[in-house]
Amino acid sequence: MTTGRGLGVGLVPRLGPAVADYPPGSTFGPREAKSFQFVWILRGRASWWHDGAAEPVQLEPGRLLLVRPGMRDSFRWDTDGPTRHAYVHFTLGDVVQPAQHQDPVLGPRALVSDPGAQALGSPEHWPLTHPIDERDGPIAALCRYLLWLGDARPDGWKERARDVLALLVVTFVAGPLPGDDDPPFPRPLDAMVRHVAGRWRDGVARPVPLTELATAASISPSSLSRLFRREFGVGPVAALELIRLARAEPLLWMSNLTMAAIAAQCGFTDAYHFSRRFRAAYGVPPSVFRADGAGSSRLAPVGQTRLRPLERRLRTVNARTS
């Protein structure tokens, strides 16, 4: 992964991170961008034209725009009401304008001599916009933190802002973070996951009977079992038990909780039942697993199956509904 310092991010003085409020119908440009610029709308909307594009890009809350140096562009803000617009201008390593480098095969293109920026490819091939998932996405969190740094300006805020900007660039350009690109679940599975997440909302990973899971999925128990085996290689009750057992791992390694307390948190009736099911899945009792510590070479059963997407989905839905 490209690091923040490897990208050589620099803030442009007096140009963010900050927020501007525009009255209805405000415009800006045409102009030639002198630096990179992230723009995102907090309230209202705007139209953005660039480099003779036939149609403008419509900007609304939930979309992040990246303007590249050398682009000719213009903005027109909402004519029906005021618009609040967040922005930050920055530089990246040794990025040179496309016209300054002639590739013998590809023709004019950007030259990126900084090793960190090279890992992301030529800026002219970077996307112009990226969704901002306000519920739990990393881009939304990074944008909020940037604005906080620009407003509060704590000691060392510029260094922190540069590091945050570097993470934002990498996430924006390189695409989804690991786990964000899981394919969507079939509708019955998605409904079932939401039901289970609701049952686990208080942090206790309770067992859920097959009939209840099937009712939530609006299909028969046998159909749900077939669907689970096709998607994950195991049945629904066994899959959820493995995920419940996986939730015991950090509690064994990083807490003083008793076995009875860990068993209760993971939805088992008592320490004996928990220990028996844990040993069946992991090959050792939880007391041995705890003694081995986090450096243990034992592989979690969830990691050896196709259950990681289901585990991530359950955590994501829980985070959104808690």
Automatic annotation (TrEMBL):
Protein origin, superkingdom: Bacteria
A GO molecular-function annotation: sequence-specific DNA binding
Pfam families: AraC_binding, HTH_18
Keywords noted in UniProt: Activator, DNA-binding, Transcription, Transcription regulation
Ranges where the HTH araC/xylS-type domain occurs: 194-292
Gene3D superfamilies noted in UniProt: Homeodomain-like (1.10.10.60), Jelly Rolls (2.60.120.10)
Keyword Transcription attributed: yes
PANTHER family, A to Z: HTH-TYPE TRANSCRIPTIONAL ACTIVATOR RHAS-RELATED
Name of the protein in question: AraC family transcriptional regulator
Species this chain originates from: Phytoactinopolyspora alkaliphila
Lineage: Bacteria, Bacillati, Actinomycetota, Actinomycetes, Jiangellales
